[in-house]
Amino acid sequence: MHPTTTAQSAIKVLLSGKPIGAEIHGVDLRTISEADFATIHGAWNDHSVVLFRGQQLTDEDLIAFSKRFGALDWAPVQETGRRFVEGYPEIYVVSNVMVNGEPIGSLGAGEATWHTDMSYLEEPPKASMLYALEIPPAGGNTYFCGMYHAYDSLPEDLKRRVEGMMVKHDGTYNSGGYVRQGVTPTDDPTKSPGAYHPLVCTHPETKRRGLYLGCRRNAYLQGLPLAESEALLDELWAIATRPEFAWHNEWQVGDVVLWDNRCTMHRRDPFDPESRRVLHRTQIKSGARPTA
Ligand code: OGA
Ligand code: MN
C-alpha cells in the first residue's frame, strides 16, 4: 500500500476496446491526490487519450490540472486575430458561437479534418486538453486514431521505405480550413510554411514508435518529387485513419478529454451551425523536438 494513501481511492480506468482510449471514473479533477495523478498519467501513456466525465471546472481549474502534466503553451492566435481569452493566455476557445458578428472561438461548425495540434511548430505541444462547456444536441463528435497502431499496421516493405524520411507539417491552414494569422495562403506543399519532423517518431516517455503525419493538406515528404510524396502520403493516411482503429467521443457537458499529440491524430464531425458548441482547450509544452 502507498504510505501516504489514507482514504480509499475510487479511481477506475475503463478501456474503450479500441487500440486507444480509456475513460477514467471516480475523480474530481479539482482535487487529485498524488496517487490518483500517477494512475491518470499511467493510463494516458498506456491509452494515449483519456476521458473524464461530469467535471465542473473554471478556467483556473482547467489550467491547474493541465499544469500537472507540464508547463503550458499559450493558445495559438484565433481566427479573428484575437490572441486568447482575456486574462487566460493558455486557453484556446473552440466554438462556433458569434458575439457582435464575430466568432468567440475557432474551428466554426464544419468538419475539422484529421490532424495533430500545432505540429507546424518546431516544438509542438505534447498534449491537449479539451473541456466541454456547451454541446449541440447532435453532431460534433471527435474521433481519435492511434499512431503507434498505424505504424505497427504498415506492411514490412512500407516500414522500410518510410524509415529516415522527414515530413513537412503545414502552417498555412488550421484544421477547420481557415488560413492562420499572418500567412499568405499557398497550396504548393513544397513551398508552404511549416516544420519538418521525422515521419516515424519515438515517443520520449513510452519509447514506442509511431507515424507522425500532422495534417494531410500541404504535407510533403522532403526530397521526393511531389507526385511521389503525394502517393506515399495517401497510402500512409489510408492506413492510419481506418475507421475501425479510431475511438470517438460523443460529447457531454462536463467532459474533459486529454490526448497525446505525439502518438494520436483527431478530427471532428460537423454540426448544425445554428446550435451552440463551446469548449476550452489547453496545450501542454513538450519542450523538445519530435525525434526519430
Ligand atoms: C482541438 C480540436 C476538435 C473539436 O481543439 O484541437 O481539434 O472537437 N477540436 O472541436
Ligand atoms: Mn485539434
Description:
The longest helix is centred in the C-terminal third of the chain and has 15 residues. Helix 1 links the parallel strand 2 and strand 3. The N terminus is likely disordered. It is built from 5 helices and 20 strands. It has one domain: Clavaminate synthase-like (Double-stranded beta-helix). Strands 1, 2, 3, 4, 5, 8, 10, 18 and 20 form a 9-stranded mixed sheet that branches. The protein has a 4-stranded antiparallel sheet with strand order 9-19-11-17. A 3-stranded antiparallel sheet has the order 13-12-16. It has 292 residues and is α+β, with helices and mostly antiparallel strands. It binds N-oxalylglycine and manganese (II) ion. The site of N-oxalylglycine (OGA) has 12 residues, from strand 10, strand 19 and strand 20.
Topology:
Blueprint: E1 12-15, E2 22-25, H1 34-47, E3 49-52, H2 59-67, E4 72-73, E5 92-95, E6 98-99, E7 102-103, E8 106-107, E9 112-115, E10 127-134, E11 142-146, H3 147-152, H4 156-162, E12 166-170, E13 194-198, E14 200-202, E15 209-211, E16 220-221, H5 226-240, E17 247-249, E18 256-260, E19 264-268, E20 278-284
Parallel strand pairs: 2-3, 5-8
Antiparallel strand pairs: 1-2, 3-18, 4-20, 5-20, 6-7, 9-19, 10-18, 10-20, 11-17, 11-19, 12-13, 12-16, 14-15
Key terms:
5 helices, Double-stranded beta-helix, four-stranded antiparallel β-sheet, nine-stranded mixed β-sheet, disordered N terminus, 20 strands, single chain, binds N-oxalylglycine, binds manganese (II) ion, 292 residues, 27% strand, alpha+beta
